[in-house]
UniProtKB/TrEMBL annotation:
UniProt keyword annotations, A-Z: ATP synthesis, Cell membrane, CF(0), Hydrogen ion transport, Hydrolase, Ion transport, Lipid-binding, Membrane, Transmembrane, Transmembrane helix, Transport
Lineage of the species this protein comes from: Bacteria, Bacillati, Bacillota, Clostridia, Lachnospirales
Family: Belongs to the ATPase C chain family.
Any one cellular-component term (Gene Ontology): proton-transporting ATP synthase complex
Protein's UniProt name: ATP synthase subunit c
Chief subcellular location: membrane
Subcellular compartments: Cell membrane; Membrane
Function noted in UniProt: Key component of the F(0) channel; it plays a direct role in translocation across the membrane. A homomeric c-ring of between 10-14 subunits forms the central stalk rotor element with the F(1) delta and epsilon subunits.
Keyword Zinc: no
Chain's gene name: atpE
Membrane topology value: Multi-pass membrane protein
Domain V-ATPase proteolipid subunit C-like: 14-76
Organism: Parablautia intestinalis
GO MF annotation terms: hydrolase activity; lipid binding; proton-transporting ATP synthase activity, rotational mechanism
Any single Pfam family the record assigns to this protein: ATP-synt_C
TM stretches of this protein: 55-79
Length: 87
């Protein structure tokens, strides 16, 4: 392996680490949403099913960002799409 291949592998590892950081945002957002939903259920227990279903739908949408970051990280680490360009 020459310098160019090692450089691309190193940049892929750094990019994978940065892509995994994308999971922080959904985690914080889901925690905030769950906290607000718990407070809303505490104020109005009769609307528990509506609040819970809306919260879960919002959390599912928010989680897609983290999953896309994980997918990019896995592709960069294991598929190595740039190795063909280095050879």
């Amino acid at each position: 392996m020459d310098f160019n291949s090692n450089f691309i592998l190193g940049c892929s590892a750094i990019g994978a680490g940065l892509a995994v950081i994308a999971g922080i945002g959904p985690g914080v957002g889901q925690g905030i949403a769950a906290g607000h939903a718990a407070a809303a259920v505490g104020r109005n227990p009769g609307a528990k099913s509506d609040i819970t279903s809306t919260m879960l739908l919002g959390q599912a949408v928010a989680e897609t960002t983290g999953l896309y970051g994980l997918l990019v990280a896995i592709l960069l680490l294991f598929v190595r799409p740039l190795m063909g360009a280095a050879q």
